Amino acid sequence: QVQLVESGGGLVQAEGSLRLSCAASGIMFSVYAMGWYRQAPGKQRELVAAITSGGSTNYADSVKGRFSISRDNAKNTVYLQMNSLKPEDTAVYYCNAYFTSSRQFWGQGTQVTVSS
Question: CA within 20 to 30 Å of 4's CA: 30, 36, 87, 98, which one?
């Protein structure tokens, strides 16, 4: 059974920081690309950051320079370090594991709320 369990969300003031974690089980973690997505109320889910199995990263323009994605294959965990948070970063953040279109999995989401 595949599980992606996010943690680290919460309420933070603008310009603050949070670190999200996503622990994976039931998959060969090292071969999966991992991503963080977010969905704000009334908006579509969007990609925030992704990291390939080889460690290459990409970011949404809105978070470049503020967020950093990393992975620890020994711990089957992917992280999202979020700095200089803005109210517009408020959303539910979802972890995604992608191998192929038919083999991708989602976590349950963790709420991030940034107050002004």
Answer: 87
